[in-house]
Amino acid sequence: MSNSVDAVATKSALRKKFLHYLFPSVIAMWVYSIYTMVDGMFVGRVVGPIALAAVNIAMPYVNFVFASSMFFSTGASTIISISLGKNNNKDANEIFTLNLVAMIVFSLTISILSYINIDKLALFLGATENTLPFVISYLKIIIVFNTFFIVSYCLEVLTKTDGYPYLAIIGVVLSAITNIVLDYLFVIKLNRGVEGAAVATGISQVISTIFFFSHFCRKVSKLKLTKFKFKFNTIKRIILIGFPDAITELTSGVVILLFNQSILKYIGENGIVSYSVICYVSTLVLMTMIGITQGMQPLSSFYFGKEDNTSIKQLLKMSFKAITFASILIFTISIIFANEIVNIFISKENLELFSYSVKSFRIYSFSFLILGYNILISGFSSSIEKPIYATIISLSRGLILVSIVLLVMINMFGGSGIWFTTIISEGLCLVISFFVIKKSLIYINSNEPDDSLEIDCS
Fold first, then answer.
1. Distances from the Cα of 108 to the Cαs of 113, 148, 149, in angstroms?
2. Model confidence band, residue 32 (pLDDT cutoffs 50, 70, 90)
3. Cα-to-chain-centroid distance, residue 446
4. How large is the angle between the packed helices 269-306 and 146-161, nearest 10 degrees?
5. How is residue 418 annotated by DSSP?
6. Minimal CA–CA distance to 56: which of 347, 375, 345?
7. Domains of the chain by residue range
8. What Å distances lie between residue 312 and 28, 228, 284, 374, CA to CA?
9. I want to staple 208 with a disulfide (CB 3.0 to 4.6 A). Which of 152, 253, 361, 436 is the partner?
């Protein structure tokens, strides 16, 4: 009887700890989504539909920058959490410092390369004669702030790893408020258009970076900057673990690029405007699912380091329940309030474009019921240092399946088939995810190396 009571108490404590990480993670990801959504709202309603389409065309590059941060943040968070679970604070601090230095060097490199080739970059992203000036104007500003985008997000994730998830909320909310106020100032008051929106977003990232970096300079932080030796194996380990989450974000940009090009060919520029609205909402949904996953990941890695398999499986079960609840709620809201959601970005006065956008958005919304499970299973695999499992899911859902399905749907149904692509590709990927979670649970139960899918990161 005593063992049963202890088990219930342990599960209750674990649930509280999970919720303690879950809500800050989801809220933080919502706020990150709001950055781009606010830009879209101001640009779409104040500057016009062509400018809104231009920001969407530039979005794959923003996804690339965000994915670059995930390369470092997810991998470093996982390894640091495992080290803390083993009470090895010295290794945790060395990994923290090495990761920060490597991240800054990487971000500066891609900023220089991007700025030198900005015209080619804009054309590669799909800028048309009408949108090219807007795309270049937006990218020029974003590129200047690349380092702050990458460092800010990584430090926010590591703040949660350090045991301060609610401090992460304060940081991202502070950044979001800065972005909204500056968007109003630059876009509306100063009439700076897409440039103003980009400057507002960039400055908000500077504020966020300063806030989070100051936390790690405080005595209360377990993670500190320290002397370190450059270890290629550690960087390799960080990147391999972060690769699946980075691919999830990066392929979001690739999908936007593929969809933009297909829509331009088979529907036209009005279709790009409709897809812009879908992208903004889809990003919010994606970030919600990533937030739930990130609420689970540090704890899963911590208990993996402690070899507490019971807690790991309980965390996974709680995460599945959270994903199910979020998926049903988001889908219901999207269907019922489709008109109101689209009206945030497109005026009802443009009746034909508005009606088409609402119809397309409702079709696309069915994918919201599925994508969360694929993201969760991929993230769980990363948290137990099974990056190849997670990579299989990320590449399948984000690149391989969606590309194949998009081609098939266009050939079968023309432009209208584009809007059904995501729900079909996510459904096919879910089959793969079920096989992956089965393999992951076998690994957890046996706690022995699995030669068939194991990568040696040591």
1. 9, 10, 11
2. low
3. 31
4. 40
5. G
6. 345
7. 2-446
8. 23, 31, 27, 18
9. 152
Greatest Cα-to-Cα distance within the chain, rounded to the nearest angstrom: 74
Tell whether the model's pLDDT for residue 324 goes beyond 90. yes
User: Distance between CA 252 and CA 132 in Å, rounded?
Assistant: 21
Q: Rounded distance, CA 83 to CA 301, Å?
A: 9
Q: Which pair of tokens denotes residue 169?
A: 């909320």
Find all residues with CB under 8 Å of 360, minimum gap 6, and list them: 274, 275, 278, 419
pLDDT digit string, tens, across residues 328-385? 999 999 999 999 988 877 777 778 888 888 999 999 999 999 999 999 998 888 888 7
CA distance 206 to 200: 10
Write down the pTM of the prediction. Answer: 0.69
Token pair 């609840």 in the structure block, residue: 325
Coil, strand or helix: which one is 179? helix
| CA count, 13 A, side-chain hemisphere, 248 | 31
Q: What is the pLDDT of residues 9-24, one digit of tens each?
A: 567 788 888 888 788 7
Average pLDDT, the chain: 82
DSSP state of 199: H
